[in-house]
Write a structure and sequence with these properties.
The complex is a heterodimer of chains A (about 300) and B (about 270).
Chain A lengths: L1 H6 L8 H27 L17 H8 L1 H33 L5 H13 L2 H11 L6 H8 L14 H26 L3 H9 L5 H29 L3 H7 L10 H10 L4 H29 L3
Chain B lengths: L1 H25 L4 H5 L9 H14 L2 H32 L5 H13 L2 H14 L6 H5 L6 H12 L3 H9 L4 H12 L1 H17 L2 H6 L8 H10 L6 H21 L1 H10 L2
Helix pairs in contact in B: 1-14, 3-14, 4-8, 4-11, 4-13, 5-8, 11-15, 13-14, 14-15
Classes of the chains: A mainly alpha (about 300), B mainly alpha (about 270).
Chain lengths: ~300, ~270
């Protein structure tokens, strides 16, 4: 067949590669690259969906956004959420993986249970959490009251709403982190542990820092980056449980973009916030790709 | 350490399961018992029937699940249709633009879906596709992750296998379908799980383009259900949440090792 193609250069068909990869290339252009260019461009205009033709406004949107107190607050809220969820899920995931690694019985059952929150539809599970945290008849307050401890309206109190959402975030992500740590721990060569024992490193901590920690450090860094990417994109729990409130206490970045873009139709503001958001996620994505490739089989 | 292992693991498991178990508990009690916080009574069959019956009649729960199945399977079908030939071409064929396409795939891997939501929403609105099945499916038919995974897989397939198939007179398409696709089954399985979990649980995009209960996918359906009048009938609300979460949880329990391996393969 290739001989035929060579013999008739004038009617040479398109290279097979173009035929096979063409649909993907076309759709990527239409559904990913195009929209990406669009959103970046919109950030430099005064465009509102359904409004008049857009004008170029340079960096005005960025200046306005950075000076906007609500936006500053939402960046801070997102950062606080991330700083609670990421270390929490990372450490608990590692702890559970270490507990599981030495377990002879029930390992599969535990692993399934710990991973379940990551699979179970978070929107539906948010409703279940709402029930647990219900101010008057939720078991959390019932239990606290029975012990004579102060109760709270967890999702309606400015001081507790964000930490409670972070707790749900940790619940959701811990199993995800654990799976990676368990895979890494299982791959620590047993000779290393044996050698450490012969060298007289009996204690658990010594051996953890000298043998296990260096071995799992690349995975830990990878998990850290992925968890951060998940955390800065938090949306479901906010949309279902707090709608950004009380006040602005849980108004995270993605929820701001959602409100500006799809409720208030301030397209340029949403686009500018999206570009800001993109800068964060691209940085994390690049780190993730680099770390994942180094640790991965491919 | 080892003395504390199982008590700690059991405690952790209990905390992980707590929201689900509590929802299940509430869904089997009558409203007055829930509000009176008298949940440690016996569950009643009447309450179970009332709550689950109310959950499936107050809003089209099975419709949400049906929509979820339709949306997820259509997305996966198109993703596979597009990513397999593209991954193969990137791994084994030379053609102009190959490096550019690969660059696009790597860029696509780093751009999270919410970033594209705003321009995609504008496109959907201009095409008059709001609140439609195509609006839920079309934006996600090309998966950078899928193309990436297929390319990495096909690169590990020895050239000799491909040469031999070509010598046997197989066309490029026959080679893909008959020889390479069966080999790629584990990678396809892992990708299928990643795709299904992501799109089944997705709330952000549906909450932007869906406006009616008829088109709602499961997570958006939960949101509608919660804001309805039935949203204060706690037993029914918990029953609804459990029904919505059940399909994916059941699939996970059946195929759990594949789920976990599949999601780890994402790395």
């Amino acid at each position: 067949m290739s001989d035929l193609a060579l013999a008739a250069p004038l009617s040479r068909p398109l290279p097979k590669g173009i035929l096979l990869a063409g649909p993907a290339a076309l759709l990527m252009l239409l559904l990913q690259i195009g929209p990406l260019v669009l959103v970046v461009c919109a950030a430099f205009t005064d465009w509102q969906l359904g409004g008049e033709a857009p004008n170029f406004v340079g960096l005005d949107n960025f200046r306005a956004l950075i000076a906007d107190h609500d936006f500053q607050a939402s960046v801070l809220v997102t950062a606080r959420y991330t700083l609670m969820v990421v270390p929490g899920a990372l450490l608990l995931g590692l702890g559970l993986a270490m507990l599981l690694q030495g377990a002879r019985r029930g390992r599969t059952v535990y692993q399934t249970i710990f991973f379940l929150p990551y699979i179970a539809t978070l929107a539906a599970m948010s409703i279940a959490w709402q029930m647990l945290l219900h101010p008057s008849f939720g078991p959390v307050n019932q239990g606290l009251a029975a012990l004579g401890l102060p109760v709270a309206n967890w999702l309606r109190d400015e001081n507790t709403a964000l930490p409670v959402l972070a707790l749900i975030g940790i619940w959701h992500e811990t199993g995800f982190a654990m799976v990676f740590f368990l895979a890494a721990l299982t791959s620590v060569p047993t000779e290393l542990h044996d050698a450490a024992r012969i060298d007289g490193l009996g204690g658990g901590w010594d051996r953890f820092w000298l043998v296990t920690a260096p071995h799992i450090a690349p995975i830990a860094l990878f998990v850290l980056v992925v968890l951060t990417a998940h955390a800065v994109m938090v949306f479901d729990t906010v949309a279902l449980l707090t709608q950004g409130g009380p006040g602005n206490a849980t108004r995270v970045l993605l929820f701001v973009i959602y409100q500006e873009g799809f409720s208030f139709f301030r397209t340029n503001v949403a686009a500018t916030a999206t570009v800001f958001f993109l800068a964060i996620t691209l940085t994390l994505g690049m780190l993730q790709l680099r770390l994942g490739r180094r640790g991965g089989a491919a | 350490m080892s003395r504390w292992r199982h008590p700690l693991l059991i405690l952790a498991a209990a905390l992980m399961l707590l929201p689900i178990l509590w929802a299940a508990l509430v869904s089997t009690r009558p409203q007055d018992a829930i509000i009176g916080a008298r949940l440690l009574t016996m569950p009643s069959l009447d309450a179970i029937a009332a709550n689950y019956g109310r959950a499936v009649t107050a809003s089209p729960l099975f419709g949400f699940i049906g929509n979820g199945i339709a949306v997820c399977s259509l997305i996966l079908f198109f993703q596979v249709l597009i990513m397999v030939p593209a991954g193969y071409a990137l791994a084994k064929l030379r053609f102009p633009g190959r490096e550019t396409l690969w660059g696009g795939v790597l860029l696509g891997l780093m751009v999270p879906a919410p970033v594209l939501a705003m321009p995609l929403f504008v496109m959907v609105a201009m095409l008059g596709l709001m609140d439609s099945l195509p609006a839920l499916v079309l934006p996600w038919v090309v998966s950078s992750l899928g193309i990436f995974l297929m390319r990495q897989f096909f690169r590990r397939v020895p050239d000799e296998i491909i040469e031999a198939a070509r010598l046997d007179g197989l066309s490029e398409l026959e080679l893909l379908v008959r020889v390479l696709l069966p080999l790629a089954r584990p990678t396809l399985g892992a990708f299928a799980i990643i795709s299904l979990v992501a799109h089944w649980n997705e709330l952000y995009w549906p909450s932007i383009v869906v406006t009616s209960a008829e088109r709602a996918t499961p997570p958006f359906g939960v949101m509608l259900f919660q804001t309805q009048e039935a949203g204060t009938e706690y037993g029914a609300l918990m029953a609804g949440a459990l029904i919505i979460a059940l399909p994916l949880v059941a699939a996970f329990l059946l195929l759990q090792r594949r789920f976990i391996e599949g999601l780890v393969a994402m790395k």
